[in-house]
Amino acid sequence: MRLETVSVIGGGAWGTALAQAAAMAGRQVSLVARDAAQVAEINSVRTNRSYLGEQRLHEAIIATARAGMADFVILAVPAQSSRAALGALDPALLAGKPVVLSAKGLETGTLDRQSEILADMAPDAVPYVLSGPSFAADVAAGRPTAVTLAGDDAGDTSMLAAALAGPSFRPYAADDRIGVEIAGALKNVYALACGAIEGAELGASARSALIARAFAEMARMVSAMGGSASTLTGLAGLGDLTLTCTSVQSRNYQFGMALGRGLSVETIMAGGAKLAEGVSTTPVAEALARSLDVDAPLIQAVHAVLSGQADIATVVAGLMARPLKRED
């Protein structure tokens, strides 16, 4: 399988960071961005200031407004934009090609995972899922980062992981696409909750307890959807959950902090908050849990806060009043 050239769809922080990682791994990279000024800036001065400040970009990255032929594709747009982004591509670009899905979220309305969206829009593409503890700024700057790359064929997944591996970016091959996708989506929901605990000044003990219970809840969801709970002990599960639920670099954690201070979703958004995938994923995850008959009190609690059905104090009181049972 030839893996020398890659087309990265999405010129935001994460798409640019993954383009940087691929270039540092020795690949020739086309970075597809919609904004003409952004394309010109990347190609002329080697920066993408709107998303990554003064970070210098690798010379092997060529920005373009339209996707062309490449050995493989990385889709790096927000989860709710994946269907539209795929629909805008020539199907011939994806037929038989590895497509690495990097968005962490479930689609509103359909409840679909990212690979299910890909199957709808480009059934002949070969899906892979990239997830794990990683911030765009760290990846772009070449700081040590380890992630999970999940695919259906062990040999091909290992080859693709090797093609993306560079001096500071280390993808570990795995075979549980469902588990990796669900973990990546749900950790954003739990990051909102942990941020809310911080914003409400409920203490580090409460946050640590929530992370532990979130891990158990996530395992129930992954198992119910046909994934492997053992996936959660790795980078895509525990690694990403811990990072996102403890760092103010996380947009979801920041958004949760504002919720914890008593601000409404509308007020936070009006204040210019950056995209927090968990806000869109939470109601989808809540509907999914109900459809699967999975006990998911944390997802339900975050949904209640986001939808204005309850405030933080009421939700916390309800969680603390749940019947005592053996820890699972």
Mean pLDDT rating: 94
N-to-C SSE string, H for helix and E for strand? EHEHHEEHEHEHEHEHHHHHHHH
Percent of residues in beta strands?
A: 5-15%
User: Largest beta sheet, briefly?
Assistant: 8 strands, mixed
**How many domain units?**
2
Structural class: alpha/beta
Q: Which outline best applies?
A: globular
What is the number of strand segments?
A: 8
- Give the radius of gyration: 19 Å
Number of helices: 15
- Biggest sheet, spatial arrangement of strands: 3-2-1-4-5-6-7-8
Task: Please tell me about this protein's structure.
The protein has 328 residues and is of the alpha/beta class. It folds into two domains: 5-175, 3-Layer(aba) Sandwich (Rossmann fold); 178-320, Orthogonal Bundle (N-(1-d-carboxylethyl)-l-norvaline Dehydrogenase, domain 2), CATH 1.10.1040. The chain has helices at residues 13-24, 36-45, 49-52, 82-87, 114-121, 136-141, 154-164, 177-199, 204-224, 235-244, 251-260, 265-270, 277-292, 297-306, 312-320, and strands at residues 5-9, 28-32, 61-64, 72-75, 98-101, 126-131, 145-151, 169-174. Strands 3-2-1-4-5-6-7-8 form an eight-stranded mixed sheet, sandwiched between helices. Helix 14 runs antiparallel to helix 15. The longest helix is centred in the middle third of the chain and has 23 residues, at 177-199. The radius of gyration is 19 Å and the shape is globular. The model has no long low-confidence stretch (mean pLDDT 94).
